[in-house]
Structures are given as C-alpha cells and as structure tokens.
From TrEMBL:
It comes from Metallosphaera tengchongensis. The lineage of its organism: Archaea, Thermoproteota, Thermoprotei, Sulfolobales, Sulfolobaceae. Residues 9-158 form the CRISPR type III-associated protein domain. This is CRISPR type III-associated protein domain-containing protein. Keywords: Antiviral defense. One of its GO terms (biological process) is defense response to virus. It holds the Pfam family RAMPs. InterPro entries: RAMP_III_fam.
Amino acid sequence: MIKVEVIFKSLSALTIAGGSKVGAVDVPFNELGIPPSSVKGALRTAVSRYTPSNFTACSEVNPDMMRSKHASGPCDVCKLFGYPGSGESCFYVEVEGVQLEKYLLTRVAIEDKTQKAKEGSLFTQEVLRPGFQFKATLNYTCEDPRLFKLLLYSLLSLRLWRFGRNGMVDLKVTNPEQICKSTSCDNELKTVLSSLSNFLWGD
Ligand SMILES: [Zn+2]
C-alpha cells in the first residue's frame, strides 16, 4: 500500500454536502465534518474534467451510460475510483478529525441569463472560512503503477476544480520522499510530486 498524505486548504468559503435538515440555515454544513466520500468524489470529478492525454475517462455517473461506454473495458478513471458492479476501487480516503468552525454566510442566487439576483433568492449557508485546513490520507491499494500516477494527477486537477458545492481548494502532498520509497518513481512521477509538494497559490 502507498500512503499519500495531503493537506487541503480552502481558498474560498467551503460548503460540503449540505444535510437534509430544514432549519434557520437553508444550506447546513454536514454535521459529520468532511466526509471521505466528498474528497474522493471531488478528485474523481476533477480528473474526469482534466484527464491527462494518455488516460481514459468515461465521465459518466449513470450506470447504464457507463456500461455502454465501457463496452471494450472500464476506463482508467473508473478502474481507479471504482464503478457500479466492480466493487473495488484502488484507494480509500481517511480524513483526520478536526474541529470545524462554522460560519454563516448569506448569499443571493444569481440568474444565469440575466446575471441579476433572482427574486426571493436570499439564502443562508453554513460554511468553513477561507484558509481552513484539513489533512487526509489517500491509501492506494492496487498494484498498477499507472493508476497510481492517475491518482496523483487527480490531486493536480483538483487544484483547478471545485470542491464541495462551489468552493476551491489548494493542496499539497507532505510525504513525497516516502512515496518514492514505497514505489519506483520515474521522471514523470517525480515531476508531478514536485509540483504537488507545495501549495499552488503559496502559503
Ligand atoms: Zn468509466
């Protein structure tokens, strides 16, 4: 198993997986903190959006559509992240428990067409403040070194894509040397890891 230790830092107010509870807050924050499935889901969406040229992504969430696109075998993204019927994915995520300080943010929904506020569209959201950090470990369990590369590419992609409802995160990998001891790092992997070793937008 290869462990990839990652620190995430929110660049904007972050809302992850609002619950279903209806109360004074229209969009409540997930009571359980940062769910590992949200981290995994965000990585999957990001790498499906920015798939490196030598990998494949079906970019489907509908199992029927997925099956038809997988007619000649599952795509690389599904092999790494798992898909209905396959059972296994190549890694699991652990999120370190943190004290979540939640803030209330009042937002206005904007209409796409007119770019004006929708009538009666004021709503309140629970968010984490920009700059909030949390740690997660990605535990890679497959033998395929190519898919491990794709996992690291998904981290690169997530720095350019959204996390949660509409947040942005920066991230860095804190154990690149340890990773290159657990697996053989070729030049490509070293380049990706070197880019991941620091926050993209500085400390
Ligand atoms: Zn697929």
